[in-house]
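User: Show me a protein chain along with its predicted structure.
Assistant: Here is one chain, sequence first, then structure tokens.
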Amino acid sequence: MENAPRVLIVEDHEVTLDALTLLFEKDGFIVHGARSLAEASTILSAKFPSIAVLDIGLPDGNGLQLLATLKAKDPKVPVIVVTASDEERLVRQAVKLGAFCFIHKPYGFADLISAVRDALAGRSVRV
């Protein structure tokens, strides 16, 4: 399990975070979950992920802030952005910041796992 990919999941909805944690662990990932930007920053100070799944709407800010931070530390880290918002400007901003893809809620867990696997395999951007 030491060589398993590390996924950072930042999702403020606790039930969704718990479900995603179980899903990714079952699929062989090491999961670091956070419900806020502050929790995510604490995790990042100890472990840098292989990939990140970020919700945009968080209680202490915007997930796109974390996207920018992740990309500044490692431009190659794939980041998948998820949101319930349908604002087109958020998609453009996520793309500009380097998101691998942008997934609208509600989404299927199989779609998210597929996007994560595509990103880790270096397949083309799916925004």
